[in-house]
Amino acid sequence: MASNIPNIETQAKIASEAAESFITHFYDALNKQHPLSLFYASTSPLLQAAGVKPDVSINGAAVATPAAYEALLAPRPRFAVGSWDAQPVSGDYRLGCPESLLAKPERVSFAVQVSGTVKYAAGEGAGEPVETAFNEAWLLVPHWEAWGRNAARGSRRWVVVSQNFRSF
User: Fold this and answer.
1) Which among 65, 123, 134, 145 is least buried, having the fewest CB atoms inside 10 angstroms?
2) Rounded to whole angstroms, how far apart are CA atoms 53 and 66?
3) Is residue 112 helix, strand or coil?
């Protein structure tokens, strides 16, 4: 199986292209107040069966589920991404991977670092909205069901297993 592991250049290309797509779609969904659950590993029965579940931390506090994270965002703030970086973590990610997909080069897990600004709405009786910097770190893995035949419409090819958000 070692020959099926993509070289580091291919891993970096996969991570970079996947991260760009993820960032574009995730922050767009945030800003348009679309549901976020499809972006997390909890949407994958194969990953769940392998014991993989999203680990979400917001300003140092653990958040139990993506739905709980969404609840924290009411009303939803506006995010503007300033910069990002992606690095492959493993070129041979296999947790929950069905045998039929073991030959795919996209078995890459990768870390993503995002920074930018977030604008929070002003509370009742408060003045202007508050804008501050944010930094977010992600670990994404393949969403196996999205790589197989007859993937569900709207499935994300990469899902979150770790999210660490900080605003300053």
Assistant:
1) 123
2) 10
3) strand
User: What domains appear along the chain, each with residue ranges and CATH number?
Assistant: 2-167 (3.10.450.50)
pLDDT digits (tens, 9 = 90+) for 143-163: 999 987 788 887 899 999 999
Nearest to 106 by CA among 13, 40, 24: 13
Q: Left, alpha or beta for 150 (phi > 0: left; psi -120 to 50: alpha)?
A: left
CA distance 163 to 166: 10
CA atoms of 81 and 11, how far apart (whole Å): 24
| Distance between CA atoms of residues 47 and 24, nearest Å | 24
The whole model's pTM is what?
0.90
- What is the distance between the alpha carbons of residues 128 and 143, in angstroms, rounded to a whole number? 40
Residue whose tokens read 């795919």? 104
Q: What is the pLDDT of residue 157?
A: 93
> Which amino acid is residue 143, in one-letter code?
H
Q: Give the chain's radius of gyration (CA, Å).
A: 17
**What's the one-letter identity of residue 54?**
P
CA separation for the pair 30, 55 (Å, rounded): 18
